[in-house]
Amino acid sequence: MISIHLPLLGPPQKDENGVEIEDKFSRMPLIFGYICRTWSSLLAFNQSIKDPVSEKLLPDPVQPPYYQPPYTLVLEMTDVLVHPDWKFRTGWRFKKRPALELFLQQLSPHYEVVVFTNESAMTGGPVLAQMDPQGQYIHYRLFREATRYKEGKHIKDLSCLNRDLSRVVLVDWDLTAAQLQPRNSLIIKRWDGEESDRELIDLAAFLRMIAMGSVDDVRLVLDYYREFDDPLAFFREKHEELMEIQAKRKHEAEKALSKRPRPTFSFTGMARS
């Protein structure tokens, strides 16, 4: 394979005047220098395919008077927001997860929403354009080209987002996609297209809890919930218990208030002189 690229990649580079630029292979015997230079170029090219297209995937956060949401929410597209569905008549189509529009509407004021998917831009771009045609809810869209490729897996390197990781939440169904920053991840159930699914409703409530609580470091919250096999199911259970307690307290307070004796007022007429 090296011999094929040797004539193109083997010679040293030249400056604008056509003079060869000395490099670390220049002092080697000619053929060895060509071989080493070619091999180094091939390794660099191979690494460029594995690395993200940029070490800074998002622009700097906006400054006042513009509004920058306090948190960043990173979402996988496939089987988190939509599910690829094949039918004989229509071919492949992406089916929206139940409550998707409500989910995006509720979170966009609190989170900078970034869809970071393993799909290519050619596949994912049109789907996201239909999901949010006006660009109201999804702030940024990142595709497979922005992932880091390692051992046959596409990994989402959150350190390249140009954001404070203490305020970044990654939602995915694939644990390996978050292996570089596991403390920032919330792994949820992979959606298979089931119509009765309510995962996004629970997820929205969970993420609103973080935002409304003004959590300084989301990783501390995620660390706690990650201990459970199904973090959202556990959150829903505790949330329902809390709602029941609050409803019971409200009922008892109203009942106690109704038993209090009501004050009576008497009015005396004033005699005319």
TrEMBL record:
What SMART domains does the database record attribute to this sequence?
CPDc
Topology in the lipid bilayer:
Single-pass membrane protein
List the residue ranges of the region (Disordered).
253-273
What's in the keyword line of the UniProt record? Membrane, Mitochondrion, Mitochondrion inner membrane, Protein transport, Transit peptide, Translocation, Transmembrane, Transmembrane helix, Transport
Ranges for domain FCP1 homology: 66-210
One of the GO biological process terms: protein transport
Predominantly, its location class is mitochondrion
The UniProt similarity line reads: Belongs to the TIM50 family.
Q: What is this protein identified as?
A: Mitochondrial import inner membrane translocase subunit TIM50
